[in-house]
């Protein structure tokens, strides 16, 4: 396991540029992650231990629709450009949602692409991620937050081919309590019912063709990373859930990627406490859809 001690970051996301032989590391990096947002940065490395940066890739102008909660930037290549999916708290409604930014370069600058958020306007939503289905159609998978629904949900919505807007109503894939491993909690101010968190979904097509979803929640108030599996191989599921979390040592909001040598890695942030959170990289092995940490990774 590699820990980057220099970079304070939540929600790490790695883009592997195989042509240039470089790694681009994005994430939530404001020192007060719960307050005013300054923008997004990128770190660049030739390996997973040594990083140069931060380099600014997005800074909002005065007319931007958000000033707070700049969270969870993911960058995906799509039709020759780079699209950043990121979460923002809206100035006008006080709701959170995912918007899309666009750039012709991994180092930015990224500019607003969607007209505001593309999650429902009246929802508290976060952590949208791009998925291209078996027919080449774009979807966004995201969380309907526990702060609004109590039992946090993972949802999916079809996007327009230009990624500017949703073209259908979102569908609920599952709620956190449907998985066997998360545990509930009661919040003193939000509500007093049992709450279950969903956080940071990421879609991964396994070597055997199975469609997996990484997502985070809590086990006895400790942040953890789990896996669910589509029984049809489609993003609409149905989804079944692994019995135990993949990572249960106070870390989550992870994603999977293959490094420049083809080795599989899990990256997530740990611990789940500001300002101590750091991106960590764990080498994994995959056997018949089962993911586990390499003993020497």
Automatic annotation (TrEMBL):
A single GO molecular function term of this UniProt record: hydrolase activity, hydrolyzing O-glycosyl compounds
GO biological process, one term: carbohydrate metabolic process
Site (Important for catalytic activity, responsible for pKa modulation of the active site Glu and correct orientation of both the proton donor and substrate) location in chain: 127
Keyword field: Glycosidase, Hydrolase
Pathway: Glycan metabolism; L-arabinan degradation
InterPro entries in alphabetical order: GH43_arabinanases, Glyco_hydro_43, Glyco_hydro_beta-prop_sf
Record has Hydrolase as a keyword: yes
Protein family: Belongs to the glycosyl hydrolase 43 family.
PANTHER family per UniProt: ARABINAN ENDO-1,5-ALPHA-L-ARABINOSIDASE, ARABINAN ENDO-1,5-ALPHA-L-ARABINOSIDASE A-RELATED
Name of the featured protein: Family 43 glycosylhydrolase
């Amino acid at each position: 396991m590699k820990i980057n001690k220099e970079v304070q970051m939540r929600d790490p996301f790695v883009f592997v540029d195989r042509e240039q032989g470089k790694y681009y590391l994005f994430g939530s990096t404001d020192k007060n992650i719960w307050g005013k947002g300054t923008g997004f940065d990128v770190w660049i490395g030739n390996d997973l231990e040594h990083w140069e940066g931060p380099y600014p890739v997005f800074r909002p102008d005065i007319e931007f629709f958000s000033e707070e909660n700049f969270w969870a930037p993911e960058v995906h290549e799509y039709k020759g450009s780079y699209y950043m999916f990121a979460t923002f708290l809206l100035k006008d409604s006080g709701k959170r949602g995912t918007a899309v930014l666009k750039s012709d370069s991994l180092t930015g600058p990224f500019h607003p692409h969607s007209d505001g958020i593309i999650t429902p306007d009246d929802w508290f939503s976060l952590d949208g991620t791009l998925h291209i289905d078996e027919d080449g159609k774009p979807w966004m998978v995201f969380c309907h937050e526990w702060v609004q629904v109590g039992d946090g949900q993972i949802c999916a919505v079809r996007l327009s081919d230009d990624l500017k807007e949703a073209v259908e109503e979102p569908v609920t894939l599952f709620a956190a309590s449907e998985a066997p491993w998360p545990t509930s909690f009661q919040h003193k101010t939000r509500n007093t019912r049992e709450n279950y968190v969903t956080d940071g979904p990421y879609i991964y097509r396994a070597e055997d063709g199975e469609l997996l979803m990484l997502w985070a929640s809590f086990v006895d108030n400790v942040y953890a990373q789990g896996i669910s599996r589509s029984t049809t191989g489609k993003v609409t599921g149905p989804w079944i859930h692994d019995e135990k979390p993949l990572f249960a040592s106070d870390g989550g909001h992870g994603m999977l990627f293959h490094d420049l040598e083809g080795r599989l890695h899990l990256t997530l942030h740990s611990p789940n406490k500001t300002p101590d959170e750091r991106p960590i990289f764990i080498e994994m092995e995959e056997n018949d859809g089962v993911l586990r940490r390499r003993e020497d990774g």
